[in-house]
Specification:
It is built from 5 helices and 4 strands; from the N terminus they run H-H-E-E-H-H-E-E-H. With 137 residues, it is mainly α. The chain has a domain of 93 residues. Strand 3 and strand 4 form a beta hairpin. The chain is elongated, with a radius of gyration of 21 Å. It starts with a helix and ends with a helix. Bound molecules: zinc ion.
C-alpha cells in the first residue's frame, strides 16, 4: 500500500482525482478513446467514465490504496463503509461507492430495465397481432 486510509480521507476531491490519474499514468495505464490511447486526466467523471472499463487499472488502484479506502471514487466524498458495491458489466471490475452514487446508479439501471421491459411487451404484442392477421387472411 502506497496510500494509507488516513491519507486518502484527508485528500480534497481535486487531490484525490489527481492522485488516481497520476498514479495510473505513471504506471503506464492509458484510457482508450475511439481507438486511441490517452493519459488519464483528473475530472469528476474520469473514474466512472474511463477507469472502470479497465479491470487492471481498478485492481492497481486498490493495490496502492486509492480505491475502497475511505473515499467514493465517483464523487470523491468520504466514504467509510464498503456497503455499496458496483460492478462494471464490461470489465467485471468491482468497486465501492457512497450511498448517493449507488442510488443514482440503481435508478439509471432501473430506467434501462424498464425500457427493456417495454420493448419486450411491444414485441410480444407485435407477434400476437401478426399471428392474428395471419390467421384471418
Ligand atoms: Zn459518491
Amino acid at each position: 500500500m502506497k496510500y494509507t486510509r488516513d491519507q486518502v480521507i484527508e485528500m480534497t476531491p481535486d487531490e484525490y482525482e489527481s492522485a488516481i490519474c497520476d498514479e495510473l499514468n505513471t504506471a503506464g495505464y492509458r484510457s482508450r478513446f475511439r481507438g486511441e490511447l490517452h493519459e488519464y486526466e483528473p475530472d469528476e467523471s474520469t473514474f466512472g467514465g474511463a477507469i472502470v472499463f479497465d479491470l487492471k487499472a481498478v485492481d492497481y488502484l486498490k493495490q496502492i490504496g486509492l480505491l475502497d479506502n475511505g473515499k467514493c471514487p465517483m464523487c470523491s466524498v468520504r466514504e467509510d463503509d464498503l456497503l455499496y458495491k458496483l460492478q462494471n458489466r464490461q470489465s467485471g471490475a468491482v468497486y465501492h461507492v457512497c450511498k448517493s452514487c449507488y442510488k443514482q446508479y440503481a435508478q439509471q439501471e432501473r430506467a434501462k430495465r424498464g425500457l427493456g421491459c417495454c420493448l419486450g411487451i411491444i414485441m410480444i404484442l407485435g407477434i400476437l397481432i401478426w399471428g392474428i392477421i395471419k390467421l384471418l387472411s
